[in-house]
Design a protein that fits this description.
Helix content is 27%, strand content 36%. With 251 residues, it is α+β, with helices and mostly antiparallel strands. The strands form two sheets. Strands 1, 2, 3, 4, 5, 6 and 7 form a seven-stranded mixed β-sheet that branches. A three-stranded antiparallel β-sheet has the order 8-10-9.
Length: 251
């Protein structure tokens, strides 16, 4: 990697780039993505690199550095499938995934006045990445593929909207501004996955319900996480109790 810069310096570079390009509204929804791009590689000549597809056409990599592609994904990993299908044939690929650790939320009205400002009671959990990993499960055993999680403190600005149905969030996210990196977690090999699980106090064997309580993931996310961990042979099923599988960590 190149000489590191601070997150604040990367944010300033991202804002300067957007201002220079005269992007209306400085593409606020993309400022987190752009900041991480500069943080990982301050040299923007290595950003948005054209990669020729095996058959026909081109795709663009967020960063190409020393033959390693870095793809920053702030949304669903489903969007990565076409890129991974091509990039992994020629390059090592590191997918970078930011997770809000401590979030300060500012709600604004349609008139752009501040309605409220509060700290979210929830803290980000690195295991949240597994819901996204499930979407690209068929790529996970490729030795050229790895992941980098950023646990970030963020300021998030939201615009209050009218709820159209009961499942509506009642807001539109305007921008997420990264303020501090709490932790960087690399998932490159099996050892890294074992190290991640060491942060949780698992007993020798556990059910999905136990896993949910220990990790503070909801039932759905726990089942998906265990599905991926089983596929990667980080955990294994060793029996059943009632209708629940019993799991053990394989190391």
């Amino acid at each position: 990697m190149e000489t590191k810069i601070t997150l604040d310096e990367a944010y300033d570079l991202a804002c300067s780039f957007e201002a220079k390009e005269q992007v209306i509204g400085i593409q606020k929804e993309k400022i987190l993505h752009k900041t991480l791009k500069y943080y990982l590689c301050p040299d923007d000549t290595k950003h948005e690199i054209k990669i020729t597809k095996e058959n026909k056409g081109v795709l663009y990599a967020d960063i190409l550095l020393d033959n390693v592609i870095y793809e920053i994904q702030t949304r669903s990993f489903n969007a990565l499938r076409n890129k991974l299908n091509e990039f992994l044939k020629q390059h090592q690929v590191i997918v970078v995934y930011p997770i809000a650790y401590i979030k300060q939320i500012t709600n604004v009205s349609n008139e752009n006045t501040i309605v409220s400002n509060k700290k979210s009671p929830k803290k980000g959990n690195p295991l949240e990445i597994f819901v996204e990993l499930y979407k690209i499960k068929d790529f996970l055993k490729n030795s050229n593929l790895g992941f980098k999680i950023f646990l970030l403190d963020m300021d998030e600005y939201r615009k209050i909207t009218t709820k159209k149905h009961y499942r509506s969030s009642g807001y539109v996210r305007l921008v997420q501004i990264p303020k501090k990196i709490e932790k960087e977690i690399n998932l490159i090999n099996k050892y890294d996955y074992y190290e991640l699980l060491k942060n949780y106090n698992f007993s020798n064997s556990f059910t999905s319900s136990d896993f949910s309580k220990i990790t503070h993931l909801n039932t759905r996310k726990s089942r998906i996480t265990l599905n991926v961990l089983t596929y990667l042979e980080i955990v294994k099923r060793v029996g059943k109790t009632g209708n629940s599988y019993i799991y053990e960590i394989t190391k």
